[in-house]
Design brief:
The structure is a homodimer.
Chain A: H1 2-8, H2 24-37, H3 39-50, H4 61-85, H5 92-100, H6 102-134, H7 142-158, H8 161-192, H9 215-225, H10 234-237, H11 246-274, H12 285-294, H13 298-331, H14 349-365, H15 370-373, H16 379-399, H17 404-429, H18 434-462, E1 476-483, H19 488-498, E2 503-510, H20 513-526, E3 531-536, H21 542-556, E4 560-570, H22 583-591, E5 597-605
Parallel strand pairs in A: 1-2, 1-4, 2-3, 4-5
Helix pairs in contact in A: 2-8, 2-11, 2-13, 3-9, 3-11, 4-9, 4-11, 4-17, 5-6, 5-16, 6-7, 6-13, 6-14, 6-16, 6-18, 7-13, 7-14, 8-11, 8-12, 8-13, 9-17, 12-13, 13-14, 16-17
Amino acid sequence: MLLKRWLIGNPLKTTQAKHERLSKTIALAIFSSNAISSVAYGTEEILLVLVLAGTAAIAWSIPVSFAILFLVLVLTISYRQIIHEYPEGGGAYVVAKTNLGEKPALVAAAALMIDYVLTVAVSIAAGVAAITSAMPDLFVHREALGLLAIVFIVIMNLRGVRESGTFFAIPTYFAMGALGLLVIVGTFHTLFAPPPSPFTSSPEPSGKAAESLTLFLILRSFAAGCSTVTGMEVISNGVKSFRPPESTNAAITMAWMSIILAFLFMGISWMAFFHHIIPKSEETVVSQLARLTFGTGPLYYAIQFGTMILLILAANSAFAGFPHLASILAKDGFMPHQMATFGDRLVFSNGIIVLGFFAGLLLVVFEGNTHALIPLYAIGVFISFTLSQAGMVKRWLTKRGAHWRKKLAVNGVGACTTGIASLIIASTKFLQGAWIVFLLIAFLIVMFQGIRSHYKAVAEQIALDRRGARPPLPQRNIVLIPIGGVNRAVIRAIDFARSRPGDIRAVFVETDPEESAKVKILWAQWGCGIHLVVLSSPYRSILGSLIEYIEEILEKDQNTWVTVVIPEIVPARWWQNILHNQRALMLKAALLFKERVVLTDVPFHLRR
Amino acid sequence: MLLKRWLIGNPLKTTQAKHERLSKTIALAIFSSNAISSVAYGTEEILLVLVLAGTAAIAWSIPVSFAILFLVLVLTISYRQIIHEYPEGGGAYVVAKTNLGEKPALVAAAALMIDYVLTVAVSIAAGVAAITSAMPDLFVHREALGLLAIVFIVIMNLRGVRESGTFFAIPTYFAMGALGLLVIVGTFHTLFAPPPSPFTSSPEPSGKAAESLTLFLILRSFAAGCSTVTGMEVISNGVKSFRPPESTNAAITMAWMSIILAFLFMGISWMAFFHHIIPKSEETVVSQLARLTFGTGPLYYAIQFGTMILLILAANSAFAGFPHLASILAKDGFMPHQMATFGDRLVFSNGIIVLGFFAGLLLVVFEGNTHALIPLYAIGVFISFTLSQAGMVKRWLTKRGAHWRKKLAVNGVGACTTGIASLIIASTKFLQGAWIVFLLIAFLIVMFQGIRSHYKAVAEQIALDRRGARPPLPQRNIVLIPIGGVNRAVIRAIDFARSRPGDIRAVFVETDPEESAKVKILWAQWGCGIHLVVLSSPYRSILGSLIEYIEEILEKDQNTWVTVVIPEIVPARWWQNILHNQRALMLKAALLFKERVVLTDVPFHLRR
């Protein structure tokens, strides 16, 4: 308990919840790190596909980057509309549920959940890659470093939203500043200094084309680049976390986020193209660019360190979104109720722990390799993008209202664009791992429905009769006190039982007639006139005889409860429990499924 | 449960206990395998020490073997007296306790417990060595084979005494027959066929003397050979298991056991000496003798297989003795009470499982190596031998009775002989591992005393007042029913509470005023006039508010119990528990250490 307090701080009152709202500056740090950090691997993933067709093919990275830029633009405008329309938080699940119905909503929810887990895993893996690019000695420890980072983030999040906000804002802005400096200085270089070897005269020295440059390859590189826009939806899920006016503040933050993302991504893509950067397995593209621009000096290390921080904070943004989604699902009965309860620190503790666990598992299974995880990524996000845009289209068509045609057009373009991108990603990445995601989505939907049908069954079973009829329930109550001897613990149980009137009986199971005679004598003195029932035990099973006796009573009198009052000796120290028969526990296990039997422990606490 | 029934059979009545008694034939198989199996390693251990002084030194194996033979004789006569004097079972613990007092008794008990575990470990290791001598390919798997054998014996023993007796008798007699055949045929060879190279002309071709032949070395070889007589005490511990007249039957069985042991041991020692057998690490001495006598044919394999069976059955004999000793100790309060309870099959299940666990642990730690375990062995047995003989000497001096002088002389010789042997073993084996045994004995004694002092403390704390004064206990009882809503489970709990008169209150913790209003309306209809207390919850902690309310009641009225009746929904399937808040469990944990608070679950069983 003390450790818990020290790690996650003191509990907060409900009335304090309002004060936990985020300012735009801190919200930008928390919610945009996911989207912006994608620049650390977006360009690299595009190049990794194109380079399969030889180094000349990397020229295609520029048009592909523009296609991604177009996506960013469309998503920004579309999501700003969602933010205004859903000030309570308009995640894909909510939008799909209110406009398209339950099935599409569950698909969106499943896709989002998977993507939150992948966001953590991919970001942590890429963040560790940023560090191992600068310090190759750490490469062998990448899994352990990744797990350590996840544990760190989980603890930070259990401490509460605002505290993690303050804690993460400074490093986020430092990281954005470092990458911004790289792009500004680097682009400045490309404009005023002539390139060392201009692209047109490049003789393709070592570029062996493994594949020819087909449309499919270009689409694959586009699909890989789509990982850049992952995380753009995060703000729309968390509108409620903003200070009022929530929607306006969220929309402004969204615009800022997109501008920073577009600027960094296009800058890095341009520089990579200009300098003929070829992706290497042991060093990231950003690391190569930083070395080219600043040399391996303090500025280089600042950029690598900043990239790592940004990526680790991106993982953090999933920790704001996932528990929120889980709690919405829990309220609708699709996730366990526990997910809907606030933890001590006004955050959804259970969701945080579940997310941390699965992300860690994924990291271990994929050996901390970013490129192995990427094919699984993006597809989930794009499914949810498409579903929420489609939901908005349906909404404008049904609801109409002011400027509905303009709004319909915006979300219509959004739905088409993200739909086409989804198809491209699904078709080009299917065999590389996207099939796992489809399987998982199906599995999660079955799980959601299973959970809800269980809750429905429970609700039906515990529902009150509409006509006000009470179920027939026993009116008498026979109280049994099983005793193994006469001592203070037993007397305490007797006194407890006697504190309310009723039919009270002590029960002693005889295994040895001598012992039994002794108990009878003591009972005469201490039993307060309570009837002592002595049972014989042919099988030496005290438990068995007792249960037989209880069953007899239940059968004879269908109109009675049997309350079993157990005098239980509770040791002063937990390990002393191994020195005591766990009779109470065994009795409980044996009687748990008997109707009309209720057990009561009367603890007698030992002091030493 | 079904698996348990299939593995260990059906439970038996107490009255069936008498029929579980053993005939002499079966008792000999169960109790003597421990002592007799020692011939598989006894001679080998003697030779292993002597050979350090060169091959010529092995001539000393004959006088050393005669010293061991003398020990067998002395022990047989002494223990027959113990058997007659203690028909209830006269283990070293019982003899030492009744004659020498508590401290020596605990030393004997600790020594015996350690030796039971070592018997299992050494016998299994040697049994596996017999098989790997014949099939060298299995050598790498010796640890796994040993563990498998232990698991097998544990299951057999959990099935009950007589069944394991019947199960083990046939192979035991087969094994004794095979070894007997080896000794008879082998000795016949040595008498009528001249030896291939007579001892007197042996030129010591390859024997390099690592040490010189000192008295210390000869004593060490004697100490190593003492492992032969381990297990001779087993019958005296288990007199109660024999058919009546118990003592006479046990004494006869003891004599037969000693004759077989002496015959096999002296035969093997003689043959080994005659054939100049030198112990090898990869093949046992018995295996070498069997190859010499019968060649590597079916008879050789029968002997190796028989030896293995005998050794594995020796381990089995410890499974009869250890739980018995543990139960005697438990009755005296030196071991947990659970050790004293009969299992389903009239055997001491807990003791069997504990023994199997520790023997397996030892086998793994010592990598299944017999020679590494031997130095730990014997010392414990000889300490208990000495203590029980000394106890008998004290007994005759105090009690006297018919022929007491003769009996005193017999046990006096026994005490001196085993005492001297103990000193020899302790001094020669101390640094080789015997110190571990002394440490463990000390540890076990501390544990025994700690357990008893705990039980004493418990007894004192729960003891009734001698003057008949009852401790002042509360007379009123306030019944609280915490509810989260109104449903059938809650109504069931209300009806249970109402079945006895008293001050009954339902408690609802308000987290949302709307919800609270609904509950109040439903309560008016369904509450049966029971007072509904509505608590506010500033920290959103339903548990916290409830506990605060209970504490308030306890403080205000020092003369009342608080009974908390919890309406608990019990899912139809165990995994559905993860879909329910474990409020009852948390409430219990929070209230367990509050005086005057008693919890009662009223289960409401879901059917689907």
